[in-house]
Structures are given as structure tokens and as C-alpha cells.
Specification:
single chain, mainly alpha, 91% helix, rod-shaped
Length: 110
């Protein structure tokens, strides 16, 4: 649109600034919608990470509390479940990070 406005010499001074303002407003709107999409995707991914973190903490606290009452093999089993939940938490966190990055890349923000 800026090239078309620049082709007519009389209109250049009057309309050139308006086209630049419209282009800047469109870029701002696009970046604002991109930020909104990023926040939405982040809010979509956070509950799973929080849930896995809570499950991991429950396993760890249960293993610590059961150490005085239960057999050692059972305590080791519960503690191992907590460790593996921590590994799963790391995998899910990385996968969600890659998902967010690729979604933003597809939306044209990066």
C-alpha cells in the first residue's frame, strides 16, 4: 500500500504518514495477539506440570513418612516412584517448551 501511495506525488505527503501509522498499528496488533496466544498456550500447559510436581512431592513425603513404619523395600519402591515421576516431569516440561516454541514459530513470532 505504501508503494501505491508513493506513486502519486500529491498524495505522498498526506497519505504516506497515514499508511505508516496503519502499518505500525497492524504490527502492534499482531504482536499483541501473539502475546495473547503465548499466554493462552502457557496457561494450557501449566496444570499438567503442577499436577506432576504435586504427585512427585506426595511420593517423596510418603516415602519419608513411611520410612519409620514400613519395610525398607516398600520405602525404596515409593521413593523410586517419586524419582521416576520427577523424570517424567522433566520430559513433560521439555515437551511443553518445545510445543510452545514451535507454536510461536508457526504463528510468526520468532
Amino acid at each position: 500500500a505504501k508503494i501505491a501511495v508513493g506513486a502519486v506525488p500529491v498524495v505522498v505527503n498526506v497519505m504516506g504518514g497515514a499508511v505508516e501509522i496503519a502499518a505500525a498499528a497492524a504490527a502492534t496488533l499482531r504482536s499483541g495477539s501473539l502475546v495473547a496466544a503465548a499466554v493462552f498456550l502457557l496457561l494450557l500447559c501449566i496444570p499438567l506440570v503442577i499436577k506432576l510436581l504435586i504427585i512427585m512431592l506426595i511420593f517423596r513425603l510418603t516415602a519419608a513418612a513411611a520410612e519409620f513404619v514400613c519395610e525398607e523395600r516398600l520405602v525404596e519402591c515409593i521413593d523410586a516412584a517419586g524419582e521416576y515421576t520427577g523424570l517424567l516431569l522433566g520430559v513433560v516440561f521439555l515437551a511443553e517448551g518445545m510445543f510452545l516454541f514451535s507454536a510461536l514459530l508457526l504463528l510468526g513470532g520468532l
